[in-house]
Design goal:
mainly alpha
């Protein structure tokens, strides 16, 4: 456990780097909303309007079914980051995933605020923010660990004249990823059961 904590402490600069990259993605995603044409904004507004009417009248999918789809999606992010960290050429892919996650959140929140002003911000606070307050740090921790292991692989396989032992770092990297995956299962439960209830509370303001 001490070794795992030490590893995470040593990766602090990487945490800062991936966090900044994610925030840049959020800003970029929000800027995309302002760059949409009038026709695209109209189509987006119609889609959101239909979504809110459906939620208000029919509710959301049953929590158990919804849980497994949410958990599977979140675990795919963790798994893909872990796989990319195992390869020398996976480093750019990790950075792209972090930036893309930021773009998706920035675009989602930007669309809601653009179409519904403060009501949209309120909906974003109950539907996007709560679980992402934990999920995003989890993804960033996994990304930093993946980048660190990928850099180790580069030093071991490309830059170093002799092979560097990677067994212990691999075990720590995998243990960290598995721990984050278990945490994601809990976050997915919140997103499946609690978030829909908060969304139904706010939706009537948007219909």
């Amino acid at each position: 456990m001490r070794t795992l904590r030490q590893m995470m402490k040593e990766q602090t600069p990487l945490y800062i780097f991936v966090a900044v990259l994610f925030l840049v993605g959020v800003v970029f995603g929000a800027l995309i909303v302002s760059a949409l044409t009038l026709d695209q904004q109209q189509e987006l507004g119609d889609y959101l309007g239909n979504f809110f009417v459906t939620v208000d009248q029919q509710g959301l999918p049953a929590a158990p079914d919804h849980y497994w789809s949410i958990a599977a999606l979140n675990l795919k992010w963790i798994g893909l980051i872990w796989i990319l960290g195992l390869s020398v050429i996976g480093l750019p892919g990790i950075l792209i995933l972090d930036f893309l996650k930021g773009v998706l959140i920035g675009f989602t929140v930007g669309c809601l605020v653009s179409e519904y002003s403060w009501h949209g911000m309120l909906f974003a606070l109950v539907s996007v923010a709560p679980h992402n307050l934990v999920l995003i740090p989890v993804l960033l921790v996994c990304s930093a660990a993946a980048i660190a292991f990928s850099l180790l692989m580069i030093r071991s396989r490309v830059l170093s004249q002799r092979r560097i032992a990677v067994t212990r770092p691999f075990a720590l990297y995998t243990a960290l990823s598995l721990g984050m995956a278990l945490l994601v299962l809990g976050i997915s439960g919140f997103e499946a059961w609690v978030t829909p209830a908060m969304m139904r509370w706010v939706t009537p303001m948007l219909v």
